[in-house]
TrEMBL record:
GO terms for biological process: glutaminyl-tRNAGln biosynthesis via transamidation; regulation of translational fidelity; translation. The lineage of its organism: Bacteria, Pseudomonadati, Pseudomonadota, Alphaproteobacteria, Rhodobacterales. InterPro entries: Asp/Glu-ADT_sf_sub_c, GatC. Its EC number is 6.3.5.-. It catalyses: L-glutamyl-tRNA(Gln) + L-glutamine + ATP + H2O = L-glutaminyl-tRNA(Gln) + L-glutamate + ADP + phosphate + H(+); L-aspartyl-tRNA(Asn) + L-glutamine + ATP + H2O = L-asparaginyl-tRNA(Asn) + L-glutamate + ADP + phosphate + 2 H(+). It holds the Pfam family GatC. It comes from Roseinatronobacter bogoriensis subsp. barguzinensis. This is Aspartyl/glutamyl-tRNA(Asn/Gln) amidotransferase subunit C. Keywords: ATP-binding, Ligase, Nucleotide-binding, Protein biosynthesis, Transferase. Heterotrimer of A, B and C subunits.
Amino acid sequence: MSEIDLETARKVAHLARIAVPQENLPALAQELSQILTFMEELNEVDVEGVEPMTSVTPMRLKRRKDGVTDGDIQARILSNAPDAREGFFAVPKVVE
């Protein structure tokens, strides 16, 4: 892979909406080049027959009881609404 030039680094920073000062562009270009080189190395690895995994160690996700913990506060919630009627938020009609 060819080296990332300063103009390409500037374009990448712009697309990522990152403000990079002119004096930091050479370092960014070098870092982007290193990332692309590493990705090329990864593409050379033979992964035929390797099952996808989510973690390098087998572990079970922690579980918690799925229960309502903050119920029965309808009046408090609706007190924040600019307009509430019959226990619901009232909003202007937008479709005829």
